[in-house]
Specification:
globular, 8 strands, hydrolase, about 15% strand, Rossmann fold, about 325 residues, single chain, hydrolase activity, alpha/beta
């Protein structure tokens, strides 16, 4: 059942995998757990010639947006990531249980189970299990960031959902406008920016429904659900992008998160990109080719991926 939210959420159109170029190998609707019909993912691999050469592919796990309540692994934003296939990345786009079905932290368990599933099948799909990245926007950025900062913390995954003996760690993260410094601070930050009548604290907000109650009544739970709470020296590198005037997820969420990351892991492992302008939260400013390529360049650096043009002999 889809929850009734405080404000309407535009649904991102989906793409049809059948319309993709024939040279993209697709494995669709791979089931990584059996508790819900939502627990499936699609996997896309680079060209066959690369696989014949015995290469192992770094993986990008795309986590879709949708206010924690909606969305699909085939939303159009996932399609923009296919540029990464040309750079030798595999792409997995994951569905997860929504807030109309479960509350936090169950969707995070799903993300980590999907990672374990992919590691369990790394040899079959020629995945480099030492180079797994998460990539998400808005709700997807939140889940991806939580997965990355809680590497090795057993309280944030449920091995009983499957593949419990495999590792769920993440080696890099791309966070596009995620609320990573605390849901309970969203309205306060919006007011600091001159916003009027923010709605995150309402009991029917996306965050309140996910967390199981009005945010100001469960502030400590919100703190425990915030990625910034778990920043430490062992967290992986982060690429963070935010529009300065974002009216839904205020830019302070990313500024605070990036500041904590830099203190723990160093400036060189954190790239914060802020864009001037209001920006319609997640659309379209967060999905330009420029931003996608800048984030991919960051992952190339982290994973020491050599672009095809750079690999050619002089």
């Amino acid at each position: 059942m889809k929850p009734k939210l405080a404000f309407p959420i535009p649904v991102t159109p989906e793409f049809n995998p059948g319309d993709l170029p024939e040279n993209i190998t697709k494995f669709l609707d791979l089931r990584y757990a059996c508790d819900s019909g939502e627990q499936v993912l699609d996997l896309y691999l680079p060209e066959e010639k690369d696989r014949r050469e015995g290469k192992k592919f770094p993986l990008i796990l795309y986590i879709h947006e949708g206010a924690f309540a909606f969305g699909s692994k085939r939303d159009k934003r996932a399609e923009t990531l296919f540029e990464a296939l040309k750079r030798g990345y595999a792409i997995a786009s994951v569905d997860y249980r929504k807030s109309g079905e479960v509350t936090w932290p169950a969707p995070l368990y799903d993300i980590k189970t999907a990672v374990r599933f992919l590691r369990a099948h790394a040899e079959r799909y020629a995945l480099d299990e030492k180079k797994f990245a998460v990539w998400g926007m808005s709700a997807g950025a939140y889940y991806g960031s939580m997965a990355a900062v809680t590497n090795g913390l057993p309280g944030f995954e449920d091995p009983e959902t499957g593949f419990g003996r495999f590792d769920s760690s993440i080696q890099a993260a791309v966070d596009l406008c995620g609320a990573c410094s605390g849901f309970h601070l969203l309205d306060e930050m919006i007011r600091e920016n001159g916003g009027e009548n923010p709605t995150h604290d309402r009991e029917d907000s996306p965050e309140s429904i996910l967390m199981g109650g009005p945010l100001q009544e469960i502030r400590e739970l919100c703190r425990l659900a915030a990625p910034v709470t778990y920043v430490r020296e062992t967290v992986p590198p982060f690429f963070i992008f935010h529009c300065i005037g974002d009216p839904v997820v205020p830019v302070q969420q990313s500024e605070k998160f990036a500041g904590a990351l830099r203190q723990s892991v160093g400036e060189e492992k954190v790239r914060l990109v802020l864009k001037e302008g209001a920006g319609d939260h997640g659309k379209p400013d967060y999905n330009t080719r420029e931003i996608v390529e800048e984030a991919l360049d960051f992952l190339d650096e982290v994973f020491c991926v050599q672009k095809e043009a750079d690999a050619l002999p002089a």
